[in-house]
What does this fold into?
Amino acid sequence: MQHDQLHYSMPPYPQQRQPEPGLAGKMSPRPDHGETSYQGSGRLAGSKALITGGDSGIGRAVAIAFAREGADVVINYLPDEQQDADEVIALIRDAGQKGYGIAGDLRDEAFCQLLIEEAHRCLGGLDILINNAGKQQFVESILDLSTEQFDATFKTNVYAMFWLSKYALNVMEPGASIITTASVQAYAPSAGLLDYAQTKACNVAFTKALAKQLGPKGIRVNAVAPGPYWTPLQVCGGQPQESLPHFGADSPLGRAGQPAEIAPLYVTLASKACSYTSGQVWCSDGGTGTL
Ligand code: NAD
Ligand code: MG
It folds into this structure.
């Protein structure tokens, strides 16, 4: 079924399940990352950006938007996601910008340091860091939540952005910008996302504290807090299987958001036009008004 509003698919969505981390190319319906719709207007001309999780979902939409706004872009992703990543790198280059992919696991501090150094070398600078990679696995009871999962969720969602932001400061100059992807889960946690919701609350506190540290250096730090968005994360165990067909249905707009619908928030926050905005969290949740 189609909704008049932008012709996006309405629930129910088809049942589907992929192993983590999943591929956007195997989702049904395929998410809209703005491939055919996003039009830039030079808002990030000359910028150099690193986007983690840039292969799919929200990160892919941000990569496409940034390139069409005139930024050169490095995306990071896991080796299993090369197929999705190749599509994004081609789209960045189609926009006339430099586009590179660097695969690797962000749970490893040494890799995070290497990623910053390599991104800086490929781009000849680094102005924008998008801390967007994330892990989300639904587990109904704390009794079934393993230490391994708890640790992996924190390493991916919390430690990685600490390491990346720290090493990025070695190469960033005044005017640079860091944006993290938090979640409405930081403010309205679901019972079955006990580990994930905590990490997203960490992301909000990290953003606000780091903004205070880095303001005197002329570096801004902001967060985007998505509500329900149609991405691989959700069909790889982020939601219980039985909830998937109605994902986002209880939002006032009655459906899940598509990644293309949130990329403009990252463009705006990264742009020099927002030079006095730092320490903020910008929510996009289909009208629930979580924050
Ligand atoms: P996604 O699956 O498309 O993106 C997540 C990406 O994280 C993956 O593509 C993968 O490349 C990366 N990743 C995961 N573990 C990694 C690791 N160990 N090392 C390197 N990369 C790793 O899904 P998405 O929904 O676009 O997720 C992007 C961000 O949005 C995440 O931080 C997520 O928590 C957040 N978010 C999503 C929703 C939603 O409804 N989709 C809602 C709120 C917040
Ligand atoms: Mg992916």
Remarks:
- The longest strand covers residues 220-226.
- The helical segments are 57-68, 82-94, 109-123, 147-168, 194-214, 232-238, 263-270.
